[in-house]
Task: inverse folding
DNA sequence: CATTTATATAACCTTTTAGTTTTATAACTT
DNA sequence: AAGTTATAAAACTAAAAGGTTATATAAATG
């Protein structure tokens, strides 16, 4: 594991669909290991391992409720991903801007065409 | 590699610091493989492999300029990561909101303290 | 056409990842 | 104290990741 920057661990943890599904589930509230394991066609230890990966990345923390170890989502690493994305944000905003402009132009063209057609009929 | 959802490939690609550094470099404009390799203490084939991972994730595309294969950043996968984050965005916004409130309260307390001290002197 | 320059591919090695089954631990229940 | 429930740890396996060196390809240049 040995992750240099926290982002290494965070992105690696998020690269697995099982782990992303677990995070999505935790958005609805705390859940035990068995509850989290239920939707998946894999053994309980496998899920425990996924949870450890998420925990090591700081994406979840675990409490104690009798035998259960309820997991809860932690937001900090996700916030860091969001912050990392900032550098690139202008890129897709520019793209959407260009797309908007293009659509605007198409609409204008269509309008012009209709007007022309109407006159000629 | 074999990535189900595009996010699998994207997050996996972003999990490596070398690859994130390459993307950051490409933010300044197109670059050849050798130019991209230059800052790193690793062989040219190693960098070529990283580029292939980025390319497979759709994070870069490559053109042709004589022998050079200039790489350029592609924004779509990053935009998808941003979109994926939307689900979680409220979480850290709520956290920052709580922090703001707390700081506000602290400031008020401080003000009250000063006022009290002034009256008693 | 031989050489150089830029990049990709092949073959290999080591470490990590993601899963398995089996076993241990921890806490509650009877 | 014995049994049950929830979770973790151990030992193993197969595949993938990330690197290496050596070699091949593609395009320009002398």
Result:
């Amino acid at each position: 594991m040995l992750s240099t920057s926290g982002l290494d661990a965070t992105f690696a943890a998020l690269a697995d669909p099982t782990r992303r599904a677990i995070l999505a589930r935790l958005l609805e509230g705390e859940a035990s290991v068995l509850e989290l394991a239920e939707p998946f066609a894999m053994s309980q230890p496998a899920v425990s391992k996924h949870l450890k990966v998420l925990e090591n990345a700081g994406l979840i923390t675990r409490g104690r409720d009798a035998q259960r170890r309820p997991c809860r989502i932690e937001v900090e690493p996700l916030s860091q991903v969001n912050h990392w994305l900032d550098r690139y944000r202008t890129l897709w905003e520019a793209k959407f801007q260009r797309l908007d402009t293009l659509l605007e132009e198409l609409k204008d063209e269509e309008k012009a065409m209709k007007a022309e057609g109407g006159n000629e009929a």
Q: What stands out?
A: The longest strand of chain A covers residues 60-62. Residues 88-121 of chain A form one domain. Chain A touches chain B at residues 4-5, 7-8, 11-12, 14-17, 20, 23-24, 27, 73, 75-76, 78-79, 81-82, 84-85, 87-89, 91-92, 95 (CB under 8 Å).
